[in-house]
């Protein structure tokens, strides 16, 4: 939900969620077809938007950070997500399939270089993509940095965040026998892929509820019940990526390859009180990446809809629109 819709932020307001001027169902191989949309000015600055999860999907709210008169925004649902097909599948669905898909989209749309915009898992994907294809990236705009490290996964699924939300943590682990609670990602994987749809839906909703409830600093602890289809895609795909360490081997870890993007300028927008992706990752990335600037937003958590984070993202995109000539796009 876009909680800032129609409300003024610190720097103005979000742009209208203009309807796409073009929609595509793009075949990318291995039986996958991706939903892709283009919004704004066809002659505008190209920017590609990576949604979170993995397992989420793009939404009209994601269009609202880009001045539609100045940007050509490209949004798409990653494999298995949203309107892409087949739905909720993990077959032929890895980080490297997604990187290949992004390049296929870029070439299909005839784009030479673009701004890459992503939050949470979208920030992870943006960094991996930029390290794999630095020549295609004019600027990185990252929100809620997640580096897909074991330390971060242990924080969120090993009880770290649960120390701040013991009531929600208790609900999250309740359906898992105590003997399996030492590895909740594996325990949930067993149940999310059991073949029993009823069991899969119950655990998919529990997995999604744990993350969604902690997204906003304004959360009051009320559990969020996601629709079954959304929960299945989100939870199954996210769990699939996490149990496989995001398909990044030791040589492919983001921090080990920061030198590949050393020349690419970037802006990091990070909530000071992000419970899902604590600021330590954004700080470490910024310190290792001289061309980046870090905007730590006070009184903000993880959600892109939080006013302070939304305002900073709009400010960043408006600033980049004013300096198009220096972007080389």
Explain what the structure shows.
The chain is globular. The chain has 329 residues and is an alpha/beta fold. The chain contains 10 helices and 10 strands. The relative contact order is 0.16. Strands 3-4-6-5-7-8-9-10 form an 8-stranded mixed sheet, with helices on both faces. Helix 4 (166-173) runs antiparallel to helix 6 (197-213) and helix 6 (197-213) crosses helix 7 (228-243).
- Output the CATH homologous superfamily of the largest domain: Alpha/Beta hydrolase fold, catalytic domain
Query: What is the annotated CATH architecture of the largest domain?
Result: 3-Layer(aba) Sandwich
Count of separate structural domains: 2
Q: Tell me about the biggest sheet?
A: 8 strands, mixed
């Amino acid at each position: 939900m876009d909680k800032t819709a129609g409300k003024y932020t610190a720097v103005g307001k979000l742009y209208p969620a203009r309807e796409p001027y073009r929609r595509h169902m793009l075949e990318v191989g291995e039986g996958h077809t991706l939903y892709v949309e283009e919004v704004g000015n066809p002659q505008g600055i190209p920017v590609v938007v990576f949604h979170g999860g993995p397992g989420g999907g793009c939404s009209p709210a994601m269009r609202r950070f880009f001045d539609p008169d100045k940007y050509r925004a490209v949004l798409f649902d990653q494999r298995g997500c949203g309107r892409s097909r087949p739905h909720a599948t993990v077959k032929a669905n890895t980080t490297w399939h997604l990187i290949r898909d992004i390049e296929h989209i870029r070439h299909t749309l005839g784009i030479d270089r673009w701004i890459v915009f992503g939050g949470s898992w979208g920030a992870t994907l943006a960094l991996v993509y930029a390290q794999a294809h630095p020549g295609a990236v004019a600027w990185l705009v990252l929100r809620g940095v997640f580096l897909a490290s074991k330390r971060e996964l242990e924080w969120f699924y090993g009880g770290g965040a649960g120390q701040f939300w013991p009531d929600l943590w208790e609900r999250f682990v309740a359906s898992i026998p105590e003997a399996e609670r030492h590895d909740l990602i594996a325990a949930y994987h067993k149940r999310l892929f059991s073949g029993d749809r009823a069991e899969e839906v119950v655990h998919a909703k529990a997995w999604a509820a744990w993350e969604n409830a902690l997204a906003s600093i304004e959360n009051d602890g009320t559990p969020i019940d996601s629709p079954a289809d959304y929960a299945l895609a989100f939870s199954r795909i996210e769990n699939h990526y996490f149990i496989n360490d995001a398909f990044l081997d030791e040589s492919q870890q983001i921090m080990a390859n920061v030198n590949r993007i050393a020349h690419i300028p970037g802006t990091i927008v990070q909530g000071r009180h992000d419970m899902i992706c604590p600021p330590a990752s954004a700080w470490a990335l910024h310190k290792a990446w001289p061309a980046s600037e870090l905007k730590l937003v006070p009184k903000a958590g993880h959600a892109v809809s939080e006013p302070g984070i939304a305002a900073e993202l709009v400010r960043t995109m408006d600033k980049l629109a004013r300096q198009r000539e220096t972007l080389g796009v």
